[in-house]
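Quarterly update from the structural biology core.
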Amino acid sequence: MFLNRRGKEIRMKKIWLVVLMLAYVILGCSSAAISSDNGLVASYKFHESNGIDGKTVSDLSGNENNGTIAGNVDWQPFGDYKVLKMNGVDNVSFGKSEKLDISGKSLAFEVWFTSGKSDQSVPILCKFDTNWKTLYRGWGLYQEKDGRLRVWLGLNKTGNDAKAYDTKRGIIQAGVPYHVIVTYDGEFVCIYVNGQPMAKVPESREIAPNPSFPLLMQRSGYVGSRGQWAVDKIKVYNRALTSDEIIKSFEEDKKQGVYNIGSTDAIRGSGSRNLLINSTFTHCSNPGIPDWWGTALAKDIEKWDGCYGIDDNATPPLDGVKCLRIVNPIDKFWFTSTFTQLPARQYYTFSIYLKSSEPEMPVSLGGFAGKKVMVTREWQRYTASGLCVDPWGADIMRCVDITMEGKGTLWAAAPQLEYGKEATPYKPSDQDILTFSRSNSAAPLSTKVDEAGLGLVISGQSYPTISAARLSKTPVINGNMDEWDAVPVLKDFKVSSGSRAAVPTEAKVAYDDKYLYIGFKCPEPAADKIITKCKDSRGYIFNDDSIEIFLSTTPDSSDGYIQLAGNTAGILWAKDIEGEQCRYAARVGKGEWTAEIAIPFSQLAKRNIKLPWRLNLCRNRFAGLPAPEYSMWSCTGSTYHMPPKFGYLAGIDTGSIPYFSWSVNDIKLVAEPEGDISLT
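Predicted structure, tokenized:
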């Protein structure tokens, strides 16, 4: 009996063992099916110690779509490891596998890479073949020389059409790591950069198959161009990826620190970080006036710069911030942040603490979704959310603003702009540390006289320096710049990303005993489309084709800075200096316009004087452009108002200029008729 029962138990254990084995096989097959169903057809790592054996790149997806490196294998540091460097000669071929010949209406691929410089279109990853007349097959990703990403698709089953899908120019910068995903779901072609959509274009046609052409990196079927760049990883899918999958993929790599680069924050925009610099209002290069904030109502208010400033007597709603006091002398007063570079087609939430001198004051919160709120006499946080949409493209410049719609006084504190539809607890921008760090300022500096005797050579900093030339003859300020031949030319104006401007700008700086002279030469292919709307010195000149000058007479801008702006009509706008004392002229010629300005030393002598001075020269270009181009001599990022990043102006011998040098013998006591005594 016992033996029989034991025998039955043994048989039952065998049965359960078979069941468990079958379950393991079933689950294993199910797991394999899930792995297959995720659509991953190829996965590559281009690491020195992982993914590459000699000149063979292993397909880590298990589909055996291995690649072969043609040319020399070179490596480039990338975070804590080294990756394959494309030195302008090499390419990688992954063959003509049927699994890689993805067609129809479903495709996605990912590329992790560091961009390099190139003067032509560079094929990053391509299975695109064409004779440019009748046949277009497959798909491909390219980096254009202007910083765009471009996706080509051969369309329709017969491959009788093709289309390019572009991001805006300047998205990709040399030397910066990027995570790029291209996905197509039969409705839209989307290009994501660092987890954020940079282009979304409607498309419903099928991708034409391309079985006879291999998948290539660094080379395509229609162009043999090469570039200097490095590749980290690549993945290819036969299905579209969801936005959640795209963000998750990027976030996983961001945790490693490789793609968490400050210069890509404006593009990436992930998390709940505050996008508004100096939201604490604690950084004021001009005393009492917060950097990165201002108004655009100079045309409506004669003394508009006295309408707002820091109120040290007010108690802020939060620790670590200051209160901004805004007085509205007219029906409406607009106070705004400077422009911030942001991805479009994203939801943003703007929040700010406000209180009023009146029981109720109507205030509009603007920037992404206009919202009117009634502000009371007690601190309260107000929010507005909206979708950022702009016809100029995915990478745009936007600002946030508050508009007082009634007379009175408004106090503001702790503004915050963040991604998403909900406001999170306030925190300052993590870019404040970089933006206002003393390591970016002028001190400490060492200076020496250059061998040519033109002035000072500044060392210990990375911002450009210009040495002003002393003139023996006073130039005529007529806009022609015809008396400046002997003055060295200042070039290399850059846009906010640090890339060179599409159209170059030249400038010259000189001086004599009475004036500081600055001249601009602005080539303009669309000179017949130059915009000149501002007609008087109190108007808003910044939407015109114009130049701007920022000048501080101390190396650390401790006494603030002056700002001047001039357009092609000869109108000069001035702040913190008496503009009517300056002489300005401009002239529009064939294919260019020029401008000259004379800034009197008698005006600058009213400020604190300490060498070297800080200077920046900027140009606002609108003529014939769908979106304006803002360029500057010393690159300050997305705003001109960044005195720690101004260039250096050297070479001015203040000791030889009467306005900056005097002695006791020059003092005279003068008896006034009323009995007072004055010094002259």
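The domain at 40-268 is CATH 2.60.120.200 (Jelly Rolls).
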